[in-house]
Amino acid sequence: MESNFSPAASVRRLPRRRIRLLVAAVTIALGVPLALAVPAWAVTTGNGALVYSPAAGTSFNPEGGKAAGTTYAKMIILKNSGSFNGTQIVTFDQLVLENGVQVYPIYRSSNNGASWARIAAVVPSAQFATLTRTAQPSLYETPVTLGTMPAGTLLLSGMIMPSDRSSSRLVVYKSLDHGVTWSFVSTVDTGGPATYDPSPTSTTSTVWEPSLAVDANGGLVTYFSDERQKANNVLQAVSYRRSTDGGLTWGALVNVAAPTNLSDRPGMITVTRLPNGNYFATFEVVNRPSQTNNTAPVYYKISPDGLTWSPAGNIGTQITLPNGRGIGSSPEVRWIPTAGNANGMIVVSSKWALTSAGVIDGGQNFVANRNQGSGAWEQLPYAVTYDAADNQGGTFSGFAQSFDSTPDGTTLFQATNVENLSTTYNDIRVGSIPINATQYEAESAVLTDTSLVTQADAQGGAKVGNINNADSSVKFAVTAAVTGVYMMNVRYDNGSGATSSHNVSVNGGANTALSYPVTPNWGRFAWAQLSVSLTAGTNTITFTKGTGFAELDQIQLYHP
Is the confidence at residue 5, as pLDDT, over 80? Predict the structure, then answer.
């Protein structure tokens, strides 16, 4: 551990980045990771690190949309690649032409997300001269040998089309050198024009939104959205094709969910394998709760093998929290290992949150389940936040985001597109949170001359505001298992328009100023971070008025 983590100082500003080497390889059987012994540090500050920012005036307008710059941020952290384990790879839908065509850009970080470099661009027109547009990428690292592809092969699936969007094609590319060079593998399926029409009278026949997994029998499966079954009264299905030769050829079309009411429109399916061998799929259902009140709530289904999802006519089960709130739009699901719990966590991201009445309301949290899909779901705060209220056809920040865990299972990284008010486009940003931190809610602390503010996106549904006066304080009682230096993450909002601060004291010791950069508004959360020295047993951490104004949602503590 570095020397400036001396326990002698009761509170100390965390330097920009702490990195431990990831020094072990993991072989993952069918996608279930094993934890490494050496952890990576979670740096949870601001609103993540910048991966890519499109220049103002460079983005084109996809049909039916606006010039968003970027959407569909997708990431993976390598776990089956030997000395490259822990490397982070990001791609996204880049709505900027390069030499007249779209590409899938490939960015890499080898320092736990602190900095990013573009290492490749996958160009679909190299194989299909007239298919010059890309969309809806997804990344996958093979956990086992598949055909001629060794474990650790990096796969990119996506939908490609001509500039007039008159056809849709699902394709797969592979990289054998961790993302530096890519080659075409195969076409999974083809469909009609890439036209979005969710109405019951729609005649579209598009294939959309591919994602990959390895099934229980060792086959490579591409899951996707299929609009070609309208003759069977299916507005859209989530379906799959399976390959037994490493993605060279693909088998028959099979449905995961295909409601026959010409209204429910499941889409954007992703699938993860659980420790008990089951497979867990999530997808949005457009036109729910109704065609006029379409909030695209997220549903799930469970399969014993990744192939059997019967009955296909069953839409599945909606994900809801104990208070009735739900999530909606463009979900992604991953199973994440957690220390001390063999079940780990099923974690799901989405663009927005829903009230118990099904109304769109914020969206700054994952939802997680710690019992392999049974029992209650809980909130888990995002590392990076965005304009979740952008739900009426704007640039759609936060749409189809992604996340993954480090090989050691200590840190969750999130990649998403975040609005940039200077360019009016979306940037791509990546941030991190520790997986096993102990969380303490501000509303449960000892409060003096403050007030509670109800907010659904706050952990526990409330935050503490009006920490405005000389005698205002928020005093947390925290427990330390051992004496030592702990990382403290502070989830705050600061809509004042200027940097603010609180004074922080541990166990009644000297104050240290903790700065809070501005957030886009009150109610939009970001992170600040300090290191604190705690003694074994009960400790107090007290926040008092500093400069300006800020509100507190929670603190997180973990001991690296």
Answer: no
